[in-house]
Write a structure and sequence with these properties.
The protein has 5 helices and 7 strands, in the order βββααααββββα. It is α+β, with helices and mostly antiparallel strands. It has 2 domains: 121 residues, no CATH class; 78 residues, no CATH class. The two termini are 14 Å apart. This is Reverse transcriptase Ty1/copia-type domain-containing protein.
Length: 218
């Protein structure tokens, strides 16, 4: 391309839009360490206590919880940052999906639930996604859904994740569009949604299973 266009070779990619990229022999590691450290500073959560889970699974969030209104602008900034972090952190996808439902009219309880995600990030800022060469490619996929998990409209939440072995290549957590009348119907919708992710996930897995380039080859 340099023979056809006026471009400059900047070498290997190391940092791009908050993503830190480390490329090694047959592997690429993507993390958001700096972004994970900077985001809590904006909300005064630097010295927060660590926790093992991103949210309390025994308490359901609802629109009207009687705890009073929170600052909507700060809440949207907080959740927006968490959404960006969820690009390489599958384990917070569900909790971020839940709190993002209250962007227009958040309460103090919603704000507290969103802040709880940062207590999980306090001790795993170095976590990321490792994409490496796979000698024996085997695509693994996991799907699940609750039934009527949303207190306000009784809609279910779908979730899926796909991995070729090491690392993870695609994941999702999203509230279903329709209200289902049974848990089996909620599962059917989730299976259909996950099948749409299967082909892209398989293509990405096949790329990771190709032969590593020999030094000197193009």
């Amino acid at each position: 391309m340099m023979s056809k266009y006026e471009i400059t070779n900047l070498g290997l990619l190391h940092y791009f839009l908050g993503l830190e990229v480390k490329q090694g022999e047959g592997e690429v590691f993507v993390s958001q360490k700096k972004y994970s450290l900077d985001l809590p500073k904006r909300f005064g959560l630097v010295n927060c206590k660590s926790t093992a889970t991103p949210m309390n699974m025994n308490k359901k969030l609802q629109q009207e919880d009687g705890t009073g209104k929170a600052n909507a602008r700060s809440f949207r900034r907080l959740v927006g940052g968490l959404i960006y972090l969820a690009h390489i952190r599958p384990y917070i996808s569900y909790s971020v999906c839940v709190v993002s439902r209250f962007m227009s009219n958040p309460s103090k309880h919603h704000f507290g639930a969103a802040k709880k995600n940062f207590t999980l990030l306090c001790w795993n800022v170095r976590y990321g996604i490792l994409a490496s060469y796979v000698s024996n490619f085997r695509l693994l996929g996991f799907t699940d859904s609750d039934w009527g998990g949303s207190v306000d409209d009784r809609k279910s939440t779908s979730g899926n994740i796909f991995s070729p072995g090491p690392g993870t290549i695609t994941w999702s957590s999203k509230k279903q569009v329709t209200t289902t009348l049974s848990s089996s119907k909620a599962e059917d919708i989730e299976i259909t949604t996950s099948s749409c992710q299967f082909c892209p996930a398989k293509a990405a897995g096949l790329l990771l299973s190709e032969r590593s380039p020999v030094e000197g080859e193009d």
